[in-house]
Amino acid sequence: MARTQGSHAGITGPRIRDAALRLFAEHGFAAVSMRQIASAVGLQAGALYNYTPDKQALLFSLMKEHMDDLLGDLARLPSSASPSARLEAFVRFHIAFHLERPELVFIAYMELRNLTPENFAVIEGLRRDYENALQRILSDGVASGCFEVADTKLATLAVIAMLTGVTTWYRPDGRLSVPEVQDLYWDMVRKSVSA
Amino acid sequence: MARTQGSHAGITGPRIRDAALRLFAEHGFAAVSMRQIASAVGLQAGALYNYTPDKQALLFSLMKEHMDDLLGDLARLPSSASPSARLEAFVRFHIAFHLERPELVFIAYMELRNLTPENFAVIEGLRRDYENALQRILSDGVASGCFEVADTKLATLAVIAMLTGVTTWYRPDGRLSVPEVQDLYWDMVRKSVSA
DNA sequence: TCAATATCTGAACGGGCGTTCAGATCAACC
DNA sequence: GGTTGATCTGAACGCCCGTTCAGATATTGA
Q: What's the pLDDT score for residue B9?
């Protein structure tokens, strides 16, 4: 027998993932070469193919894991509270989650068109699951009379777009802390769907 | 003497611009080659260089003209009305303008990182001018008591992000007309900044 | 009609691309 | 300590890249 697992596989794999994440976020998927990724990890390009079947799979796995994390964490939010409390929890969660991983968020939004049609369909389905979770909250709130929203689908997309925009300007060393940002966005969202 | 102007220049130039616009929007700047653009216009790649010094200038001119159009049209909105009326006009204008040119909007948001630092600074400056116009409206409204906004800078970015998101889902043959979309977004924005 | 010149072609330049693979290297188990 | 197999190198494959430019082509003013 020999090694049951590659001795470096457990280290090199994540390092490749991190390098690809950083480079894709900075320059874009199409503008980053496998040789650049390999160089960032201290490898030759060929060695990458011990860890990914091809460049496309590298992008897809980053986006897929990101969406799985997003939906997994979302599912842990309390679902029995009032629509207003659930909406507040959603807003605060969305902001915190996205600010914790700006590079993944950037990739997940910008590189959709670089996915193969099959991979795109998978990510798009997960994205829709996420949107549906918010739409459910808004619908419940409208049904119970605590929200007044003319079109829950449009409101869902509007709220998500507004919240996700935080990643384009927030800086950890900036004027506002994360809780302050959460408070400010929650105040706007709360009013925008209020009766 | 000979031709005072190239007989095709007035036709080929815009055709190159349009092809580049379409291809950049569909595949991304980095993923589109000069040969693809030339082929879409029925030329060899070398001929493009009669119309643009290089690929970067092609991207920059698209984005620069887009921002100039945006700011030019914005300046035509009435500026003497009440903050509330000015905000409504801004919201309706932003939606209509962006839905009329989804490809340019897409490029202007997605390809910023493919600009040279100098070109990026120019576009970023114009973008800030646009944001400042909205922030002025919000500040005036806060000063006159008709708006209640805790942080006008954050609210500015939040509103723009929310409105621009319309381009990611709106389809001309979809469920909602442009005026309906404008009404729905204006309703949400109005409430989100209300006192 | 013909000279002038705007426009375009076609080939070339040096270089980088994603991917493959034979063989070198090296760590873990017997 | 030798064997095994995971890991990696280095070279190669065919192809495409942005850009340049000499020369062909096309159109207009004279």
A: 63
Q: What is the pLDDT of residue B11?
A: 86
Distance CA A129, CA A73 (A): 13
Q: Which residue of B has its CA nearest to A111?
A: B28
Q: What is the pLDDT of residues A49-103, one digit of tens each?
A: 999 999 999 999 999 999 999 999 999 999 999 999 999 999 999 999 999 999 9
Count how many Cα atoms sit within 13 Å of the Cα of residue B30 in the half-sphere of its side chain: 19
- The CATH number given to A1-52 is 1.10.10.60
Contact B26, B40 (CB under 8 A): no
Q: Which of A176, A184, A192 sits opposite B188 (nearest CB)?
A: A192
Cα distance between residue A78 and residue A140, in whole Å: 15
CA of A23 to C1' of D10 (A): 24
Query: Minimum mean pLDDT among B1-5, B35-39, B45-49: which range?
Result: B1-5
Quick one: A54-192 is in which CATH superfamily? Tetracycline Repressor, domain 2 (1.10.357.10)
Q: Which of B36, B98, B149, B154 to mutate to test the interface with A (most CBs of A within 10 A)?
A: B154
Domain boundaries, chain A: 1-52, 54-192
* Helix, strand, coil percentages for chain B (3-state, nearest 5): 75, 0, 25
Residue B33 tokens read as 């080659």
B147 φ, ψ (degrees, to nearest 5)? -115, 155
Reading the block at residue A114, the tokens are 């670089």
CB-count burial class (<10 Å; 0-12, 13-18, 19+) for B7? exposed
Residues 36-65 of A with CB under 7 A from strand D: 38, 42-47, 50
Q: How long is the CA A172 to C1' C19 vector, in angstroms?
A: 40
Q: Which residue has the tokens 């910023």?
A: B112
Read off the amino acid at residue B3: R
Task: Report the DSSP beta bridge partners of residue A194.
Answer: A147
Q: Are B100 and B167 in contact (CB under 8 A)?
A: no
Question: Does the domain spanning B55-192 belong to CATH 3.90.850.10?
Answer: no
